[in-house]
C-alpha cells in the first residue's frame, strides 16, 4: 500500500511524514511525499530533526507530484487549512484524508522557538502515523470506507 504525504512545498511536513512513516511502517506499506509547488530542497531543520530521532534521511528530496515513483493508494494532505494555506487537491481515484499541521518553515522568533515549531509538527505527525499503523491494516485494506473514516478521525482527534 502506497501512502502519499502531500503539501505545497514538500520541504518540511510532508518529508517528516514520509520519513517517519517509512521508519515505522510494516512490510508492504510505503510512503512517498510530494508538493504541488515544491521548493526544490528539503529544509535543513527537517533533516536534522529526523537524524536526531534516529530516522534515516538518505534519498529524501523535494519533488513534484508529477514525479512520483509510484501511484498512491492513499493521499494525506498536511497543509494547515486553519492557517490560511490552500491544500493541493490530488487528482486521481485515491483515498484522501486531511491531517492539517502548521508549517514550521514559516516559524519565526528565536532559534529555540523555531526548533519548537519543527518538533511540534514532527510530534503531531508521528502520533498520527503511530495511530494509523496501530489500526487493523489487513482488514482495512479491504474496507476503504472504514479506512477513510479512521484516517479522518486520526486527523481530527490527535494533537
Give a verbal description of the structure.
It is a single chain. The chain has helices spanning 13-24, 44-52, 111-133, 137-141, 144-157, and strands spanning 2-7, 30-35, 74-77, 95-98. It has 159 residues and is of the alpha/beta class. A four-stranded parallel beta sheet has the order 2-1-3-4. The chain has a single domain, classed as 3-Layer(aba) Sandwich (Rossmann fold).
Topology:
Layout: E1 2-7, H1 13-24, E2 30-35, H2 44-52, E3 74-77, E4 95-98, H3 111-133, H4 137-141, H5 144-157
Parallel strand pairs: 1-2, 1-3, 3-4
Helix pairs in contact: 1-3
Keywords: Arsenical resistance
Protein name: ArsC family transcriptional regulator
Domain Phosphotyrosine protein phosphatase I: 1-135
Helix- and strand-based class? Answer: alpha/beta
Largest sheet: 4 strands, parallel
Please identify the top-level CATH class. Alpha Beta
Strand content: 5-15%
Give the full name of the CATH homologous superfamily. Answer: Response regulator
User: Averaged pLDDT, please?
Assistant: 91
And the CATH topology? Rossmann fold
Question: Which labels suit this protein?
Answer:
single chain, Rossmann fold, 5 helices, 159 residues
Compact overview of the structure:
By secondary structure, the chain is of the alpha/beta class.
Amino acid at each position: 500500500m502506497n501512502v502519499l504525504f502531500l503539501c505545497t512545498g514538500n520541504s518540511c511536513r510532508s518529508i517528516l511524514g514520509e520519513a517517519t512513516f517509512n521508519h515505522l511502517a510494516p512490510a508492504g506499506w510505503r510512503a512517498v511525499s510530494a508538493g504541488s509547488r515544491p521548493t526544490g530542497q528539503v529544509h535543513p531543520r527537517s533533516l536534522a530533526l529526523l537524524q536526531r530521532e534516529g530516522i534515516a534521511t538518505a534519498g529524501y528530496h523535494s519533488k513534484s507530484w508529477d514525479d512520483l515513483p509510484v501511484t498512491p493508494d492513499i493521499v494525506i494532505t498536511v497543509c494547515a487549512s486553519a492557517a490560511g494555506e490552500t491544500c493541493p487537491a490530488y487528482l486521481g481515484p485515491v483515498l484522501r484524508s486531511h491531517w492539517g499541521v502548521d508549517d514550521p518553515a514559516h516559524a519565526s522568533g528565536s532559534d529555540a522557538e523555531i526548533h519548537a515549531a519543527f518538533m511540534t509538527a514532527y510530534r503531531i505527525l508521528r502520533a498520527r502515523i503511530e495511530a494509523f499503523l496501530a489500526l487493523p491494516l489487513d482488514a482495512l485494506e479491504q474496507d476503504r470506507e472504514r479506512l477513510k473514516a479512521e484516517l479522518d478521525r486520526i486527523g481530527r482527534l490527535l494533537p
